[in-house]
Amino acid sequence: MSDRGHAGYRMALLTAASLLGLVLALGVTPAVIVAGASRTVTIQSFAFSPLTITVGDTVTWQNRDDTTHTATSDASAFDTGQLAPGASSRAIPFSIAGTFAYHCSIHPTMHGSIIVQAATAAPTPTPPPTAPPSTPRPTPTPPPTEPPTVPPTASRTPSPVVASASPPSQTPSASPAPLATTAAISAAPTSLAVASPIGDATLGSGPGPLVAAVGAVIALSLAGLAVALYRRR
User: What percentage of the chain's residues is helix, strand, coil (to nearest 5)?
Assistant: First the structure.
C-alpha cells in the first residue's frame, strides 16, 4: 500500500474517532441516534414559534422578518448563524430528550425553546378480543312425576269361626254290653211279674200275688236306677 493510501486510511480512522468522541461528549450512545422527522421553527414579528419534537428529529429555522436574526443556544449546544430575511438554517438534529433554550444574538429580547421528548416504542397491536366460549344452554329438568295415588283397599275382616253346635261324636265302646245284660235282667222280672199272676191260677187272692207285684216294681225301679247311674258315668 502506498503512502497516499495509508494517509487516506488514517484520515478515515481519525474522522470516525472524532464522530464517536462527539457522540460520547453529548452523552448519547450510537443506539439512540435514530432518523427522525424534519421540523421547522418560524421567526416572525421578532418571535420564535414554539416547537415540541421527539428524540431524533431535526429542526430548521426560517426567517420571515425583514431583518436578520439568529438562533443561538443558551448552553452553546447549537448556533444557526445569521439568517437573512427569507433565509433558512441548516437542519440541526436533537438526539437527547430535554428542553433547549435559545435566543437571538442580534436581538437579546428574543427567546425561544425546543422541547425534545423521548422516543416511544411503537405500540404493540392489540389482538382482537377472543370471543368467550359459548356456554351450553342448560337442559330443562322435567318436573317430577307424582306416583299415582292408589285408593286404599278395605281389608276383609275374617268371619268369626262359629263353633259347631254339633256334639262331639262319642266313640261307642264295648261297655254298653252290661246295659243289654241289665236290660235283659230287668226285663225278666217284668215278664215274670206279669206272667206270675196270670199263669199261676192256683195262688188265689192271698198276699202272694201282691208281694210278687211289689217285688217286680222294686226290681224295675232298681234296674232303672242302675241304668241312670251307668249313663252318668
Answer: 30, 15, 55
Domain 33-117: homologous superfamily in CATH: Cupredoxins -  blue copper proteins (2.60.40.420)
Q: C-alpha grid cell for residue 175?
A: 261297655
Report whether 40 contacts 60 (CB < 8 A). yes
- Comparing CA positions, the residue from 57, 58, 60 lying closest to residue 40 is 60
The CA angle 210-211-214, to the nearest 5 degrees, is 85
pTM more than 0.70: no
Residue 171 pLDDT > 60, yes or no?
A: no
Which grid coordinates belong to 16?
A: 470516525
pLDDT 10s digits, 91-120: 999 999 999 999 999 999 999 999 999 987
Q: What's the N-to-C CA distance of the chain in angstroms?
A: 174
Report the SS3 class of residue 41: strand
- Cα distances (Å, whole numbers) of residue 145 to 139, 150, 151: 17, 15, 18
